Amino acid sequence: MKNQPNSFAQRYEAKDLPSALADVAKLINGKKPAVFLDYDGCLSPIVKDPDKAVMTEEMRDTLRRLADVCSVAVVSGRDRANVEKLVQLDNLYYAGSHGFDISGPNNMHTEPGGAKEAIPALDKANITLDERLKDVEGVLVERKRYAIAVHYRNVPEDQVNRVLQVTEEVIAQHPELKKGPGKKIMELKPNLDWHKGKAVLWLMEELDLNQPDILPIYIGDDITDEDAFATLQGQGIGVMVGEHDEQTAAEYRLEDVDEVQVFLEALTQTIKKQPHV
Ligand SMILES: O=P(O)(O)OC[C@H]1O[C@H](O[C@H]2O[C@H](CO)[C@@H](O)[C@H](O)[C@H]2O)[C@H](O)[C@@H](O)[C@@H]1O
């Protein structure tokens, strides 16, 4: 199963999953983790304004310490440059636009999903969405290099359907694009078989992490993280933060961003006690 996305993943109710905090040493079982983290809802709480989703200094210190003892990557739906700016750590890897745009230490930068040809369609869709949604109160059209998120969290309830309908119509005009779900957003993404799970596999290969003593751990809170949970089932550990509207392919849970930080601290301490670090 190594390096193949798992399309037959088991699904669970998030509330029924065991806590990842119960016994961290037992969880990693003497292996060395490679940690993949979502940003919004995982490293920073969900807030009304995406520009205000700022990570705390404490979380930054926690990530810095973790990255001193194992590989750490942030795998986000955000624009890669944007998430780099929010996290501000240069010893991490960053996968932005749901994995289409990847950077890392020593000037690593690559765009492995092959999405360049979707850029003109994204540009056109961006213009149409700005124009057609300009009168809707609270709507936000967020352009990323390889995606557009149409945010409706702050849109009056009676106008949400109109936002969704316009967004679907614009997607239908561009065969190069497809629809993606998210928390109070509808996304336009390149119509390609590439997602966060494939980005994780790509990073594991690139960083030579496909080793029997390495344990990939993916932590996320949103539906887009399900691709990564499903991909890692059987070869790693998926940790769901809170819950979303669907069943999850994660096998452990954490309640919220605070518990993510406690877990990452515990992981760092556990790794340090292991003989091979
Ligand atoms: O994969 P992620 O790093 O979790 O990114 C997913 C999306 O996160 C952002 O939107 C979400 O968080 C916002 C701030 O808390 C919130 O206002 C919004 O409702 C959420 O959907 C980001 O703005 C998107 O681009 C990402 O795709």
Explained architecture:
This protein has 277 residues and is an alpha/beta fold. The chain has two domains: 6-111 and 194-272, Rossmann fold (3-Layer(aba) Sandwich); 115-190, Trehalose-6-phosphate phosphatase related protein, domain 2 (Alpha-Beta Plaits). The chain is built from eight helices and twelve strands. It has helices spanning 24-28, 57-69, 80-87, 119-133, 160-172, 196-206, 226-232, 257-273; strands at 32-37, 72-75, 93-96, 101-104, 108-110, 140-144, 147-151, 177-182, 185-190, 214-220, 237-241, 252-254. The strands form two sheets. It has an eight-stranded mixed beta sheet with strand order 5-4-3-2-1-10-11-12, sandwiched between helices. It has a four-stranded antiparallel beta sheet with strand order 6-7-9-8, with helices on one face. Helix 3 (80-87) links the parallel strand 2 (72-75) and strand 3. The longest helix is centred in the last third of the chain and has 17 residues, at 257-273. The radius of gyration is 18 Å and the shape is globular. The protein starts with 23 loop residues before the first helix and ends with a helix. The structure holds the ligand O=P(O)(O)OC[C@H]1O[C@H](O[C@H]2O[C@H](CO)[C@@H](O)[C@H](O)[C@H]2O)[C@H](O)[C@@H](O)[C@@H]1O. Belongs to the trehalose phosphatase family. Its EC number is 3.1.3.12. Its cofactor is Mg(2+). Removes the phosphate from trehalose 6-phosphate to produce free trehalose. Pathway: Glycan biosynthesis; trehalose biosynthesis.
